[in-house]
Specification:
CATH superfamily of the largest domain: Response regulator
Largest sheet: 5 strands, parallel
Strand order of the largest sheet: 2-1-3-4-5
Number of strands: 16
Radius of gyration: 22 Å
Helix content: 25-40%
Strand content: 25-35%
Order of helices and strands: EHEHEHEHEHHEEEEEEHEEEEEH
Oligomer: single chain
Mean pLDDT: 83
CATH topology of the largest domain: Rossmann fold
Structural class: alpha/beta
Shape: elongated
Length: 242
């Protein structure tokens, strides 16, 4: 789980980071001390969860939470504050947790475990293509939470029965989207080369003709060639020659 800590007190951020570092499976990917920096940090790091102080100068934690909720795949928010009267506001903002300072280790562990369960807004974006004014992402739920991959990092998709494997720069991701839906959502950056394969054009490095057995594509960062069907061969050849 990727976590961002937001608190205007550096010592409070440091204490939370030390506790989180002792938990396996959690990674603090960023920190912020004010509202605008917090929103930017969460967007840049694609954090799954935000530990968010309520009382801060400028934008307070509740305002930040409302802005984060507008994201295509909003992170889980755990409010952290010294003021118990904010519990109702936290509930109304659909927070994944609410921790009182000084935060106890066991309470933090329990809140992070709850945050692993995707929210309704997150579930709505799972196993799909998330588009907006920024980069396009393919998102899916994994055992570690929600994982999303930028379209620019995707090498190709391979469909097998009811699942589709996303091969990307950092590894693999299993989703339930069909190649047809992916092809329609991702547009001209990808080309269908086989009934089972959708390939990123920018990563194609060559086409190899294999006689009666058809043809294969070589892709940057991919060891094994990707088959090209006879039906798609003319289109793929024209793409490469062009």
């Amino acid at each position: 789980m990727r976590i961002v800590i937001v608190d205007d007190e550096p010592l409070a951020r440091e204490r939370l980071r030390r506790m989180i570092d002792a938990f396996p499976g959690y990674d603090v990917v960023g920190e912020a001390g004010d509202g605008s920096s917090a929103v930017h940090c969460v967007n840049e790091t694609a954090a799954d969860t935000v530990l968010l102080d309520v009382h801060m100068p400028g934008m307070d934690g509740l305002q930040i939470a409302r802005e984060l909720a507008e994201a295509d795949v909003p992170p889980a928010v755990i409010f952290v504050t010294a003021h118990s009267e904010h519990a109702l506001s936290a509930h109304n903002n659909h927070a994944a947790g609410y921790l009182l300072k000084p935060v106890r280790r066991d309470d933090l562990a329990a809140a992070l475990a709850r945050a692993r369960q995707p929210s309704r807004a997150q579930l709505a974006a799972l196993d799909g293509v998330v588009t907006g004014d920024g980069p396009t992402y393919v998102s899916a739920r994994t055992r570690d939470g929600i994982e999303r991959v930028a379209a620019s990092d995707i090498l190709y998709f391979w469909a097998d029965q009811k699942y589709t494997t996303v091969y990307h720069m950092q590894g693999e991701l299993l989703i339930e989207q069909s190649l047809l839906a992916l092809e329609q959502a991702l547009g001209a950056a990808f080309v269908r080369v086989h009934r089972k394969a959708l390939v990123a054009k920018r990563h194609i490095t060559g086409l190899r003709l294999d006689g009666e057995d058809g043809a294969t594509l070589t892709l940057r960062h991919v060891r094994d060639p990707v088959p090209v069907s006879r039906r798609r061969l003319a289109e793929v050849r024209a793409l490469i020659e062009g």
